[in-house]
Hints:
Number of strands of chain A: 2
Pfam family, one (chains A, B): HTH_20
Strand content of chain A: 5-15%
Oligomer: homodimer
GO molecular function, one term (chains A, B): DNA-binding transcription factor activity
Distance between the termini of chain A: 29 Å
Protein name (chains A, B): Winged helix-turn-helix transcriptional regulator
Number of domains of chain A: 1
Helix content of chain A: 55-70%
Structural class of chain A: mainly alpha
Shape of chain A: elongated
Amino acid sequence: MTVAVDDDLWSAIGDPTRRRMLDLLLASGAGTATSLSEQLPVTRQAVAKHLGVLDRVGLVQATPAGRERRYQVDEVQLGRAVAQLGAVGNAWDARLRRIKQIAEAIQKNG
Amino acid sequence: MTVAVDDDLWSAIGDPTRRRMLDLLLASGAGTATSLSEQLPVTRQAVAKHLGVLDRVGLVQATPAGRERRYQVDEVQLGRAVAQLGAVGNAWDARLRRIKQIAEAIQKNG
DNA sequence: TGACACAGGCAACCATCGGTTGCGCATCAG
DNA sequence: CTGATGCGCAACCGATGGTTGCCTGTGTCA
Lengths: 110, 110
């Protein structure tokens, strides 16, 4: 039973910088490439690229406002991503537990 | 409260091929680069590289056996990785819940 | 024992990706 | 109008996931 994972979603939240960006966006409600880059150890351009991939998988939405481009987290989609984290985690957890049981059974009978 | 994540561990299990490899190893108990590559859409060499990174972060252990090199999952370390998945998931889950509460409060008072 | 088969390591090469710098364009403020 | 600022685009670089090709070492079998 290999847990079905949306690979695009997963790899989107797989990048540590993107995770921090989502964290920052959630904390402050919204932000631009420039405002985010000020709170991160990377340049505005790098942040812009990341916002691009987050946008493509629907984890954030952009709202043009004047000369700015304000980004905001799509909580539903992020919820879906988080659920996948949980699903994969649970699947492996269950498998590990099963293996541990088998090991104990063997030890008992051996 | 940004959940502390071991970036090496995370990126090790972040790769979809490596996740499948861990799945396969857990399912069959052990395997070699060659045996794994037969069950994956990549070459033996690619698998060997992945086994290298999994080995470096301690997620698998190698046991030379004759002309083979048998790999096996270190369940403790994998457990640690899975726990991190859970931790990150929970952190975001909590934050999403908090935001939802705030949104509801605003709607009620506005 | 000698010849062949097969697992695995090493190296070169390629595409993609995260990151950088540099530049040009648009928009807002004085 | 002019300068500052926010953004997009392009070129470039290093790391990484992947490939093919080749060589070494270890079994196996006649």
